[in-house]
Amino acid sequence: MTQCAFAPWNDPEEKPLIQFRNVSKRFGDFTAIDDLTQDIFEKEFFALLGPSGCGKTTMMRMLAGFDAPTEGQILIAGQDMARVPPNKRAVNMMFQSYALFPHLTVWDNIAFGLKREGKDSETINARVDEMLRLTRLAKFAKRKPHQISGGQRQRVALARSLAKAPKLLLLDEPLGALDKKLRQDTQFELMDIQEKTGTTFVIVTHDQEEAMTVASRVAVMDEGRIVQVATPDQIYEAPNSVYVADFIGDVNIISGRAKTQGDKVAVLWAEAQPDILGTTSKSFSDGQEIHFAIRPEKVGISPDEPADAQNKIQGKVLDIAYLGNISTYHVELPTGHIIKAQTANTRRIARRQITWEDPVWLSWTDTAGVLLER
Amino acid sequence: MRRLTLIAVPYLWLIALFLIPFAIVLKISLSDVALARPPYMPQLDITGGWVAIREFFAALDFENFWFLTTDDLYWKAYLSSLQIALLSTVLTLLVGYPIAYAMARAAPEWRPTLLMLVILPFWTSFLIRVYAWMGILSNEGLLNQFLLWLGVISEPLTILNTNTAVYIGIVYTYLPFMILPIYSALERMDDSLLEAAEDLGCSRLSAFWLVTIPLSKNGIIAGCFLVFIPTIGEFVIPSLLGGSETLMIGKVLWEEFFSNRDWPVASAVAVILLLILVIPIILFQRNEQKQREAEG
How far is A111 from chain B (nearest CA, A)? Predict the structure, then answer.
């Protein structure tokens, strides 16, 4: 971790570019956004992550101006956006379907927004050429959208939305239509372009890996609310709820009752089983419901009882998922709980010590997991 | 072999129902009028052998086509037909486009019903519908009665038996042919394209001009041809709704055939009409072809 890391959200002096102030959006009886307040800062790559129907697309459409909030205010650069139509906002959007104009060439698609601004043709030519270079599309300038591949179309859509040099670029599931390999390449390309142009990006996605890869901050949404906003590592390492822990990556959740033990908290989770010890900055009262969440890769697995682990439980291997670089062991505890443990396959598979039905020991340190109230 | 048979079927169909009738009409147009039954000569007599056939071809000439140039009635009728067809195509487009647009923007559950309403008039006889317009447009007709009752006019307007009535009749009759292709083009359009246009700085109106119109272009072209081509040769509407000053080639053709019983001249008129129509038909086909290619 470098000290000069980009974190304007921690700086009280910094003015946010976008402010949601108690924004609600209802469609008839359905509440898409529920009293949401959130700041997004300049040059951020802000990801809205959540399952479908959580309100992330509605948030984006309100930023673009296609939907108006039922209640509350949205400010961009300090200006209330309530009466500003989409064509008067310094905001551009890259659509999920790309929405390329099929009757125009790649060049004309990119030039479309610039022409509407009434710029002279020299400026437009220069800017379009710059965009074509940035997105490596120069060869395809004269083609129509149906004559290029999906990945190229995606880049045209990006170039078109960037051409006007918006303050804010909205990306609605931008990589959804691409296959996995191309998607990963494009994610890095997106980050690269975001850095080069210094534009603020807000991306909507349901793909947690994508959000983690590209974003400076991730907002996890559920039913019209933002459950947690944090940097990808915080979201992963320190989720604030079972929902977030479960939504981001793989996790083992063990529920029980809290009991304070000095500066640590023990989770009483089953009869005749050792309590799980964890550290937390939050305070729990004794007997309170508590959830212990731990990532599979933080659970150690060994055939012999580990000597110096704060937490250790015995179980039996139920299943092994071999993924090449890693293996995930599904271990059944005597209580019926199934705990996933992940190890990197640093040795060849023939040398693997553990196999099906083996009795094994699971272990982790007291700082490996997180303790959650809900 | 099977493929050949499959290809042969439409060709046989075209030969039997298009090429042969055309050859017959062409032959009549090259013949001379005669007081006989059928009212032209020469007649082909194959039993006469080679000599008879040679005589038959020797008797054919372009006299009737020459005749068409001597009387200015004909070229005036052609010109007037073109003009009426052109203007009514534009009128039909102006009326049809907003209807197609409204249909395409209607809630999806309403679209089949609206489509049905457009097609519904086809279920009654075309002739009866034109007669109904006579009832509406005549001096004592519904329209005049209504306008008199409203007090907009003090004496009935003469609409029936004028070119106005012809335009009303044509626009009414051919409206579905305009609406359907435009509707199908608009309905396929992705709404996010309009949002994208607005997002990039278009007002609603300029988004319509820059995106909606170009994307429905093929529908507009198809609709215009579907109205223009049959309108040129239209004769029922001008004869029932039009007046003496309404000059359309379809009507002239009908009169040559049935009033004058001059089949050769009538056939010559028909052949010229066909030649005139070949140009827009080819253009229409090319438009369809281009559209299919564009859709890949």
Answer: 10
| Domain regions of chain B by residue span | 80-261
pLDDT, tens only, B219-246: 999 999 999 999 998 889 998 998 888 8
Q: Chain A partners of B211 at a C-beta cutoff of 8 Å?
A: 101
B109-112: long-range contacts at Cβ-Cβ below 8 A with a sequence spacing of 24 or more? B111/B187
Look at residues B177, B174, B278 and name the one whose alpha carbon lies nearest to residue B231.
B174
Partner A contacted by B190 (CB < 8 A): yes
**In this structure, which topology does domain B80-261 adopt according to CATH?**
MetI-like fold (1.10.3720)
Mutate to test the interface with B, among A116, A144, A164, A168 (most CBs of B within 10 A): A116
Would you say B273 and B79 are in contact if contact means Cβ atoms under 8 Å apart? Answer: no
B202 → closest Cβ in A87, A97, A102:
A87
Tokens of A49: 């992550």
Side-chain half-sphere exposure of A79, counting CA atoms within 13 A: 10
Positions of chain A with pLDDT lower than 50, given as ranges: 1-3
Q: Is the dihedral of CA A204, A207, A208, A213 positive or negative?
A: negative
Q: What is the ipTM of this complex?
A: 0.81
> In chain A, which residue's Cα lies nearest the Cα of B196?
A99
| Domain span holding position A168 | 9-243
Residue A321 pairs in a beta bridge with A328
Closest in A99, A101, A113 to B195, CB measured: A99
Element (H, E) at A315: strand A311-322
Q: Is residue A3 part of a domain?
A: no
